[in-house]
Automatic annotation (TrEMBL):
<keyword id="KW-0119">Carbohydrate metabolism</keyword>
<keyword id="KW-0321">Glycogen metabolism</keyword>
<dbReference type="GO" id="GO:0005886">
    <property type="term" value="C:plasma membrane"/>
</dbReference>
<dbReference type="GO" id="GO:0005977">
    <property type="term" value="P:glycogen metabolic process"/>
</dbReference>
<dbReference type="GO" id="GO:0005516">
    <property type="term" value="F:calmodulin binding"/>
</dbReference>
<protein>
    <recommendedName>
        <fullName>Phosphorylase b kinase regulatory subunit</fullName>
    </recommendedName>
</protein>
<dbReference type="InterPro" id="IPR008734">
    <property type="entry name" value="PHK_A/B_su"/>
</dbReference>
<comment type="similarity">
    <text>Belongs to the phosphorylase b kinase regulatory chain family.</text>
</comment>
<dbReference type="GO" id="GO:0005964">
    <property type="term" value="C:phosphorylase kinase complex"/>
</dbReference>
<comment type="function">
    <text>Phosphorylase b kinase catalyzes the phosphorylation of serine in certain substrates, including troponin I.</text>
</comment>
<keyword id="KW-0472">Membrane</keyword>
<keyword id="KW-0636">Prenylation</keyword>
<keyword id="KW-0112">Calmodulin-binding</keyword>
<keyword id="KW-0449">Lipoprotein</keyword>
<comment type="pathway">
    <text>Glycan biosynthesis; glycogen metabolism.</text>
</comment>
<keyword id="KW-1003">Cell membrane</keyword>
Length: 106
């Protein structure tokens, strides 16, 4: 949704989803942000979760740590950070501008 906001020029959407994403990132031993592949409810808490969905704490998966990166999520995160920080331009990511209507493309 961050990338969607960047392509649409929607600063509120970018801010909202960055705010939601950052607390969910893990940090590796070098201090780099790592995107977990998924979150799960521990086995001991499954019954309580079934009784009241959303009530239990989710734990990040081991897939998506420094030794076992979830490459798709990590790539999307890095691209969004580069675009937001102005280190990458949309046209460098999509040189033929497929995100534009056909009549606006070069």
């Amino acid at each position: 949704m961050i990338l969607d906001g960047i392509f649409k020029g929607n600063d509120e959407q970018i801010k909202k989803y960055r705010h939601l994403l950052h607390p969910r990132l893990k940090v590796d031993r070098n201090g780099n942000a790592v995107v977990p592949k998924y979150f799960y409810v521990p086995t001991l808490c499954i019954d309580a979760e079934r009784r009241e969905p959303g009530s239990q704490k989710r734990i990040p998966s081991e897939e998506g740590d420094a030794d076992n990166l979830f490459l798709m999520g990590q790539a999307l995160y890095i691209m969004s950070e580069l675009l937001v920080d102005g280190l990458l331009h949309i046209n460098e990511l999509d040189p033929i501008r497929r995100y534009l209507p056909s009549y606006n493309r070069p």
